[in-house]
Amino acid sequence: MDDILQHVHTTLDRDELKKIIVLLLASLFQEKKSFQEQLEGVVGISWKARLTDFFAKEGVALSDRARIEEKLTRLQKMLESLPVVRLTLAFDPPTHAIEAIASWLQATIRKPVVLDITQDHTILGGARIEFEGRYLDGSLRSKLEKVFEEGREGLGGLGELGRLGKQV
Amino acid sequence: MKDFETCLKEIGEVGYVEQTRDSLAYISGLPNAAPFELVVLESGEIAQVTLLHADLVEVLLFSKTKVKIGTKVARSGESLSLPVGEELLGQTIDPLGFPLDKTKVVRKPKASRPIDIAPTGIEKRKLITKACETGVTIVDLIVPLGQGQRELVIGDRKTGKTEFALQALFSQAKLGSVCIFASIGQSVLHVKHLEEYLTKHNIAKHTILVASSSSDPAGMIFLTPYSAMTIAEFFRDQGRDVIVVFDDLTTHAKFYREIALLGRRFPGRNSYPSDVFSTHARLLERGGNFVVGKGEASITCLVIVETVLSDITGYIQTNLMSITDGHIYLDTDLFYRGRRPAIHPFLSVTRLGRQTQGKIAKDIYREVMAALTLFEKTQRFARFGAELSEGSRLALRIGQFLLAFFEQSHEAVFPLPVQLASFAMLWNGFWREKGVAGMKSDIGKLNTLYQTNEKVKRKVDSLIRTSASLNELLGVIGKAQNLWQT
Questions:
Q1: Which of the residues B14, B30, B52 would you substitute to probe the A interface, choosing the one with the greatest number of A C-beta atoms within 10 Å?
Q2: Which residue of B has its CA nearest to A132?
Q3: In whole angstroms, how far apart are CA B402 and each of A59, A155, B80, B141?
Q4: Cα distance from B71 to chain A (closest Cα, Å)?
Q5: What CA–CA distances, in Å, run from B186 to B82, B255, B316?
Q6: Given this model, what pLDDT does residue B107 score?
Q7: For the segment B252-280, what is each residue's pLDDT rounded down to a tens digit?
Q8: What is the pLDDT of residues A9-59, one digit of tens each?
Q9: Cβ-based contacts of B12 with chain A (< 8 Å)
């Protein structure tokens, strides 16, 4: 299962795979076509190859519909139980960036996760991360706000000095 | 109260609304949420954590605005608190402390107190020794209350429960107590009538009206009596006596039942949650007489409860009877017979008020109860149409005079000295010739003069003070003639 889950980085990937599984399960015992033909009709090229590899590694023959159903159902449950890491970035990340972030997160958290990436250009840079109820604001915006807050206190002190100077 | 962004940054936890059920919402995330903690929604509303499930947090909403699924939620790390201070006097506020009249500019109090706290322990309490005058003759003489007593006011709808409570508030406001009226889930028009009463009788500046209307969320209605009690505790700690009216706790129990059933709590008797007793007990146990500094201060509670078809054996009614220190029963039959107030002297009980009465009032109580008992028995006998003896006719006449003596408009309040003096005059036979109408007119005159004329006031007070018992007072009243002649 881990091999196919390695290709699921974001919630979009997860939802796409879930949709494919639902379509395959719906037509598994109804069509007169073979499962191979169903894969070609329903699934895109990339997912077709991955699923074929998946069944091969699991030792499931493409003619054994009962076992295919069992594996697909199990895969569906695993996809639903994958924890979601919500990521807010200032930009739309390219595929290689997503893969890098996903593998870093999996290495840190030590379990498979999916990313729910949203864009918010107002954070300027960095990221806001939410995982299992915990929230971390590592955005550039919050850092700058903190600098300005501290600077304002410092500037306020300078203002006080100025007023004292005038009195003197 | 901190805003959503501040809470999110400070606490570092976030949740998402997964499900809503009217006043309740279920939130995923927030791993360290604690019971009764306040949470802030992204839209600005606040809610209170009520239950922690394995993967969801149940919160009680306080806002009328519908909460959308997927709304972000942050923990505040605080419990629900209410701003309290002298600035609240004269205001009508909601249970969270915001003024209901948005057109008025009011100063927000600086201090705040948690709304739901454990009642004070035994070490800070004192025995009740001071009387709590309500200004209603039948109550002050027959079912007296003490400062710090929790008294139930029970009766069917439209029997005068709220009117009695307002009379008590009026009386206490004139004596310098802080008055708090908690209007729980009543109509907006009802709140308006209360405001008008307070303004008309010039006691608004001594009174705080904590109101939630029937269209408010169940969470807000549930909070109302606790908010009122929190404000009462603030003034108590300033050394001032407070009287709090809860109108009414049957409505409060109904809304609590609604919240519990929505939250899938197992229903108990009459579908009420099993902790409805504790809900009311922990509220009312915060009332009493307390040691404050070197002195004492009290929180007197008048708890209004509605019955249906005079059934006082209902679940909530009997719960509150056992929590409180007595009950004033407003009888529907007496009400329809035209008695105002419709307080039943034999079915009403006071467990603590008697110890606060002076000797004269105690003597009056004995005389009145004996006379009324004889009157009731004689009335039953008289229905048979048999010829009555002179004694029976006298008993009936005395009974009728007594009933007329206790009749009182809901607009009028009589200070205790006026009640004692006028009873002594009645018992002396002062109105034997003038009759009931003359008696009522003279008592009204005496009351007005007592409150406006210092000479009359001193005369009456001196007569009461110098008499050690009712017999002595009867003797001196007989010699004093017309008290209202200045």
A1: B14
A2: B29
A3: 101, 80, 51, 12
A4: 13
A5: 21, 12, 18
A6: 80
A7: 999 999 999 999 999 999 999 999 999 99
A8: 899 999 999 999 998 888 887 767 777 777 777 788 888 888 888 888 888
A9: 134-136
